[in-house]
Amino acid sequence: MSEQSVATAPPAGKDEHRQSPPALVRLRILMHDKPILGPLVVLVLSLVVFSLLADNFLSAGNLSLITQQVMVIGIAGLGQTIIILTAGIDLSAGAVAVFSAIVMAKAATDLGLPGPLAILVGLLCGGVCGALNGALVVRFRLPPFIATLGTLSVFYALGLYLSGGATIRGTDMPAIMTAMGKSFSLFGTNVSYGAVLLVVLVAVVSYCLLYTSWGRHVHAVGDDVQAAGLTGIRTGRVLISVYIVAGVLYGIAAWVLIGRTGAASPQSASTLNLDSITAAVIGGASLFGGRGRVLGTFVGALIVGVFRNGLALAGVQVLWQDFAVGLLIVGAVALDQWIRKGSR
Amino acid sequence: MTVDRTATPILQARNITKSYGQVQALRGVDFDILPGEIVAIIGDNGAGKSTLIKCLSGAVAPDSGELLLDGKPVTFAGPKASREQGIETVYQTLAVAPSLDIASNLFLGRERRRPGVLGSVFRMLDVKGMRKDAEKALSDLGILTVQNLGQAVETLSGGQRQAVAVARAEAFSSRVVILDEPTAALGVRESGKVLDLIRQVRDRGLPVVLISHNMPHVFELADRIHIQRLGRRAAVVTPQSHTMNEAVAIMTGAMQVDTTPSADAASLSKA
């Protein structure tokens, strides 16, 4: 939040061990103050490395492909990030998105609703799913991990039931429902509408988190629920609102997913649950709550996309792509622990 | 700073009782604080100190008895209600959000929005204005050694965090500031700073209720000392009328005090 210089407040007492921090400590403080720094450095480094490894990596066409590959994960990752900010986690993110996609598609094909209305129904479905998760966490006091582990199966099963296990083709739907997969030309590059939507959403969610009371309350709840309650913040309301907003974001991800894959299928996006967490964590969001930026998640999603794409172009087997992403996650969480070590 | 012993108590509790199941935490306790004084509450564990201040701050509703604010009966529906009446509490846990910066913490739970469309439609916070006011609140109390208001509270030392919490209470309080064990977690030097801070709050006209286990701190700061024992007020003494050992003796029951006359704030003016 702060654009000011690095924290070097003179301690009230003379703590000798605080006087001249060694370089490593200064680096930690810097990364603590600017959480976006780590992911950004990793992204730039990976871009450089892969452009050296694969000739066509930096081509306009390939970069456009990467953005198309990350747009669904990126949008779902935004929802995941605000939940992680409250020290929660949402294992059902992908299941909500897939269920919403099927509801959206069914509303258009079976009910014959006009496109925009069908999309709205899909977003509403995401919001209701989120509200259910939020209610389980707030009213029934379930740990978010358990609550969403349960709803993950529930939403997945509902999606299967509603679709009858069959894929609904995008060609059967109104054009607007697949529009997010379409591209327009900008400076000779193909830019998909879904990627633009992702950027817009990053800006909107960032604004809400950094410049509204709601955003500050989300951070405060993630930091320390009891403390937040004592300052008069209605923590239950904040938590439920967070899960609802996340659900709606998964609904938007569902819309983009239909465009990207040209269909609504109960089998699609099976890795989205964990991919959204991956994007948030690599982007610097702390699973302990209170720390994280949606801009970081955006960069985190790009890092995953760049790694997968770059390794594929370099001719590396898929299993090593997973291996690399796994290392990234472990590295990011270890880094977060190290950054926090000094402050608590 | 002299205290007018004949003034109407700014906050007064009469015959408050509170039970948690079988446990009677408060058995008809009286309490009063006059304008411009520091009243310390001391007592052994389980004497009902915390329950008493929770009743005063609205966090707990008493079973019976009454609270008087400026001589008028009040009931608080919750911490927010008492805060609206100008009673601010600094809890032992400080109730700060470590990852937010100092200015954000000062205004946590009562953020101000920008005027006009930005505030009403886009809900934009008045970040600059709040930061400016936070700076004023901190510098008024002489604790602007914390240079950078954009600094996260988790980067501060324990004493600095306490200072932020006290400054928040001071800035928003119009009647009484309640401090629960403000020096419990602090070192000697930091404690000293916080004690100075409490004195400043009092000297700026706000009466302070101070809960503490630390007898030297209590005797250094308090104008009067409310001794809580077994859910009742055992006595009210002053640092001049009694020694630390006597206060501890009353606290533990080793020394009996006739509560009726000395507990009366007015009679203490002669002491």
UniProtKB/TrEMBL annotation, chain A:
Top-level taxon in the UniProt lineage: Bacteria
CDD domains: TM_PBP1_transp_AraH_like
Gene Ontology terms, MF aspect: transmembrane transporter activity
Main location: membrane
Membrane topology: Multi-pass membrane protein
Cellular component per GO, a single term: plasma membrane
InterPro entries: ABC_transp_permease
Subcellular localization, as worded in the UniProt entry: Cell membrane
Signal peptide: none
Name of the protein in question: Autoinducer 2 import system permease protein LsrD
UniProtKB/TrEMBL annotation, chain B:
Keyword annotations from UniProtKB, A to Z: ATP-binding, Nucleotide-binding
Pfam families to which the protein is assigned, alphabetical: ABC_tran (PF00005)
Molecular function per GO: ATP binding; ATP hydrolysis activity
Domain ABC transporter intervals: 11-255
Matching SUPFAM superfamilies: P-loop containing nucleoside triphosphate hydrolases
PROSITE patterns (UniProt xref): ABC_TRANSPORTER_2
PANTHER family per record: CARBOHYDRATE TRANSPORT ATP-BINDING PROTEIN MG119-RELATED, SUGAR ABC TRANSPORTER ATP-BINDING PROTEIN
Protein name stated in the entry: Sugar ABC transporter ATP-binding protein
